[in-house]
TrEMBL record:
The chain crosses the membrane at residues 31-56, 68-89, 101-119, 125-148, 160-182, 188-208, 220-243, 249-268, 289-314, 326-343, 355-375, 381-403, 415-438, 458-477. Pfam families: MFS_1. This is Conserved putative membrane protein. The keyword Transmembrane helix applies. InterPro entries: MFS (IPR011701), MFS_dom (IPR020846), MFS_trans_sf (IPR036259), Sugar_transporter_CS (IPR005829). One of its GO terms (cellular component) is plasma membrane. It is a multi-pass membrane protein. GO terms for molecular function: transmembrane transporter activity. The lineage of its organism: Bacteria, Bacillati, Actinomycetota, Actinomycetes, Pseudonocardiales. It comes from Amycolatopsis japonica. Keywords: Cell membrane, Membrane, Transmembrane, Transmembrane helix, Transport. Residues 34-482 form the Major facilitator superfamily (MFS) profile domain. It is found in: Cell membrane.
């Protein structure tokens, strides 16, 4: 394998004074520098989302936003992120990963800052939508830089697990940091990412280099495919978001879903005829990739749905402050420590699939332990769920990233990253919508604390079901692999007999 294709390979003089490395998974200084820059970007994306979530009450109080507008501040980001993720991932493959990463990081920086100067609801909506679009281009570009810079194997696995742990840590720490900043001034929730973005941008310009283009020449964007898939993703994302508000009627929701499906069918038709498709449909024939993405969607839905319900329970029913709630959820952030330290060793010993399955099972156990939620539960009663969920996340999140990108051609790594993060984003939106719909239905017209508690208990079944389904999907893949291995072993044994 040449160093031109994988810059950070064993014996690369850029990374070490020696010509060889004593360990296959050891990385040199420049490799660590590039990895830390990319980890900073995914940390930025996680912390940005988490800080905004806990600052929403403060934003509503100062700007006088309606409930619909306040919800739209979150939904606008989801629409931009989910709607443009596939296009963003493929754009990284076609036009240069460094170019996409750096360029859209600038956009992220600018519009995050503009959100901090907002004086009207529409300004926040615009800022969050464009910030979501920027993240949709920046995130898969960053992931594909890792998967094309580190050779497949222990070194890439180590980089991806470190990357995944940093992203999860950003979300966990963002809850606490957002709570602290919101008590000072909610505008700092928008200004803080600007400072972090500027530091990452300067480091990226210095450390990340665009690899030499291949000899196939410039590639043209499949314009019809780009339009139809973006339209499909936007409509489906909008329909999923509307599920959170059943009281607004089902007309627009059903119409959005129907329009999204129609646009998706048109996209498939375009891609089948296109000489240079935006998404090569054959990539979806990879069983591990499909199982990883579907289970990632369910896992993200279960996690974000659970976190949302716990936040409502602690703040609205128990009267805990934003900061107290953030600290209560901080135990889940243990995955930020375990993912880059313990998980690589477990992957080397047990493999990715077993770890993912174990992580999903732990998540299901965590949600099940929270089902008998009480009116006066102490934090000691909640802590087992929090710490077990953190362990489950540490086992599953990084290996999912590895499985979703393993065996994919180098010129489609951006697309693979786009598919994975689209699954995560739609899963998060679907989980939030599902738990909200069940909670509202179970609550009915009751306004008592007991009725609210009953609504939370009913909605907590949703994350449990999603985690169990995710575990079943991953287990089915493991069974298929085992059956294939057994068949090959029997075929090899026939001539010997």
């Amino acid at each position: 394998m040449s160093n031109r294709r994988f810059p950070f390979t064993e014996g690369d003089p850029i990374l070490s004074n020696s010509q060889t490395l004593p360990r296959a998974d050891r990385m040199g200084g420049r490799a660590w520098g590039v990895l830390l820059v990319l980890c900073g970007a995914i940390f930025l994306e996680g912390i940005d989302v988490a800080m905004l979530n806990v600052a929403l009450p403060s934003i509503r109080a100062e700007l006088g936003l309606s409930t619909a507008t306040l919800s739209g501040v979150v939904s606008a980001y989801v629409l931009g992120y989910g709607g443009f993720m596939l296009l963003g991932g493929r754009a990284a493959d076609l036009y240069g990963r460094r170019r996409m990463f750096v360029g859209w990081l600038v956009v992220f920086l600018v519009f995050s800052g503009l959100g901090g100067f907002a004086t009207e609801g529409w300004m926040l909506l615009l800022a969050r939508f464009v910030t979501g679009v920027a993240a949709a281009f920046m995130t898969p570009a960053g992931l594909s830089i890792i998967t094309t810079s580190f050779e497949e194997g222990p070194k890439r696995n180590k980089a991806l697990l470190f990357y995944a742990g940093t992203g999860a840590g950003g979300f966990s720490l963002g809850l606490v940091i957002g709570g602290l900043l919101a008590r000072i001034d909610w505008r700092w929730v928008f200004f803080t990412p600007v400072i972090l973005s500027a530091v990452i941008l300067l480091a990226a310009l210095w450390l990340i280099k665009e690899p030499a283009r291949d000899e196939r020449g410039p590639r043209r964007l499949d314009f019809a495919g780009a339009v139809t898939v973006t339209m499909a993703m936007l409509l489906i994302a909008y329909a999923v978001v509307r599920l959170e508000h059943p009281g607004q009627g089902w007309g627009w929701t059903v119409a959005s879903f129907a329009g999204g499906v129609a646009a998706l069918m048109a996209f498939v038709s375009v891609e089948r005829r296109s000489p240079a498709p935006l998404v090569r449909l054959g990539i979806l024939k990879s069983g591990p990739l499909v199982r990883a993405n579907v289970s990632a969607l369910l896992f993200a839905g279960s996690f974000f749905g659970f976190q949302f319900l716990v936040t409502l329970y602690l703040q609205e029913l128990r009267g805990w402050s934003t900061l107290e709630t953030s600290l209560a959820l901080l135990a889940v952030g243990i995955d930020a420590i375990l993912a880059p330290t313990l998980t690589p060793r477990l992957v080397a010993r047990f493999g990715n699939t077993r770890l993912i399955f174990g992580g999903f099972v732990l998540a299901a156990v965590s949600y099940a332990l929270f089902l008998p939620l009480g009116m006066d539960w102490t934090y000691a009663a909640m802590f087992p769920s929090m710490i077990i969920l953190g362990l489950g996340f540490a086992l599953a999140y990084g290996p999912l990233t590895i499985v979703a990108t393993d065996g994919i051609a180098e010129d489609e790594q951006g697309l693979a990253g786009g598919l994975l993060y689209t699954a995560f984003q739609f899963g998060a939106a679907l989980g939030l919508s599902a738990v909200t719909a069940v909670n509202v239905a179970a609550l009915g017209a009751g306004g008592s604390p007991e009725a609210a508690l009953g609504g939370y208990r009913a909605a907590l079944v949703v994350p449990l079901v999603m985690a169990v389904l995710a575990a079943i999907i991953i287990a089915s893949g493991r069974q298929r692999v085992s059956a294939k291995e057994a068949r090959l072993a029997s075929e090899e044994a026939i001539p010997a007999s």
